[in-house]
Structure to design on (180 residues):
């Protein structure tokens, strides 16, 4: 009987502690839309984010997306290392979504991430967003509010910019802290 209680307590502790360690790494969704950038395969759109005090595994990405009338194709989300405040080596493709299935217009695109990589603590990484056939556009803002928005960067066809210069892309990134 004591063995059963010990196992039950261990299982409950695991679920409670995992739930308590889930967190938001970046969130600029409070900002109003200024405009949209078309997403294509070249050049890709990059947005940086940083992990907290523990190793992290990504779980969900929420983008403010617009699908144009005739747009079809796939959006691909990858993660890259930081290399001197620039997107570096590609670590992993996190997700792909068939945008032809989405309704035309502005919407929240929520992508569940099946990451296999543990991201190091207190480290900057870059999301890379590409699409085939110019499948849509991602919103950006001129406001700089939200978790992480003031300290991060983005890179697009116009170059590398601090979010405080012109504003961040509008997205929310979540992860779960993991034990090494």
């Amino acid at each position: 009987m004591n063995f059963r209680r010990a196992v039950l307590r261990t299982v409950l502790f695991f679920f409670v502690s995992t739930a308590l360690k889930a967190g938001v790494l970046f969130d600029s969704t409070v900002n109003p839309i200024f405009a949209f950038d078309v997403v294509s395969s070249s050049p890709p759109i990059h947005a940086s984010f940083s992990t907290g005090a523990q190793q992290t595994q990504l779980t969900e990405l929420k983008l403010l997306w617009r699908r144009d009338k005739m747009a079809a194709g796939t959006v691909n989300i990858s993660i890259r290392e930081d290399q001197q405040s620039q997107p570096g080596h590609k670590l992993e493709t996190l997700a792909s979504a068939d945008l032809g299935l989405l309704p035309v217009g502005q919407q929240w695109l929520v992508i569940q991430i099946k990451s296999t990589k543990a991201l190091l603590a207190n480290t900057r990484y870059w999301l890379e967003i590409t699409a085939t056939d110019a499948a849509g556009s991602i919103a950006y803002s001129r406001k700089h509010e939200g978790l992480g928005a003031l300290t991060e960067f983005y890179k697009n066809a116009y170059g590398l910019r601090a979010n405080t210069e012109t504003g961040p892309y509008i997205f929310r990134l979540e992860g779960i802290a993991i034990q090494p």
